[in-house]
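Protocol step 4 of 6: structure prediction from sequence.
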Amino acid sequence: MSRETAFQGLQCTECHSSYSKGKNLQKCPRCGGLLDTIINPEILSEKSKGDIDRTRSMWKFRDFLPVDATDKIVSAGEGDTPLRRLSSIQGNVWVKDETKNPTGTFKDRGASLAVTALSRLGVKDLVLSSEGNAGCSFALYSHIADLGCRVLMPRQANPAKVELSRKLGATVTLVEGTIADAGRRAEALATKEGSYNASTFVTPYRHDGKGTMALEICEQLGWRTPDWVVYPVGGGVGLVGMWKMFSILEKIGWVKKRPRFVAVQSAGCAPIVKAHNSKKEDVEEWSDPKTIAFGLRIPKPLAGKWILRCLRESDGIALSVTDEEIRKSMRQALKDEGLLLEPSSAATIAALPHLYSERMIDRSDEVVLIATGSGLKTLEQL
């Protein structure tokens, strides 16, 4: 069996320039485009499902990730989360329960991978913008790896997320305005202080971590894919990462097909829904975003074109739900399933009645909802 790792380097999603995996990069130096990691499916095709180790974390799939064999993994046991069938909903519906991650959110997957990769590259200090959950995650993994971590959050961020990020060692600065304003502050700070900007899609080392959800879903379903994956889109990292991993699995013959995606957003901030349903190739900034689902309050996702391309390739659907529907679904999930979900997570459940009643999907279809984060940090919104 070849000892060469599948991680081959980085490539710009815009100008397609390629870069060595040893380069410490954020966006493309040539055109400013977003970078993707190059994972070679030909090398992965030499492996078998039996090669997967029994590590109780996402790192059982390290062969699919942008790391080398000698890299020291920065882990707190993230991933390997349950895939639960929902008994209270008529239909064939499962939930990927990401609330079981160390800080209660799937952001831990991206932070674990990013901090592992950046540690190998010699990065010592991180700065990032966050609506809350990513701040908690990067605070934890930066602390484990002994990296400096500074987080810029909108002033309206959930207080528990602000406090947890601070307790885990991050320096948190609250910014007036939206996540876009926090992102501009993070970029300026990284430039001024020489820190690495680990914000959503500014670094190429987060989406593959979240893509491990796709690998786990297929493994948990006996190496087949569901018909649909319903995902709450904020920055879109998980959707892009999962689509990439589903595609790799199909190329190497571990699954026969890829699922279709449903992108769910809040009616108070739905730039992806608007762009996809208008057949646009990029998103326009959503003016005056308002929603209780702070993780979905992203007025202009940086990877808008990338997200829309993944949706089109999956022959996907995009729809929005109201805050009232989200809150009702939070309470329903807790009462009927014992699931304590934050608003962003509950948006996927809120989407189901629309998907069924409008015949977008069939009751017999196998559906996996991504429950992105725990409601323990958003109890005030329950």
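Step 5 (inspection) to follow. Residues 107-197 form a domain with the Rossmann fold fold (CATH 3.40.50.1100).
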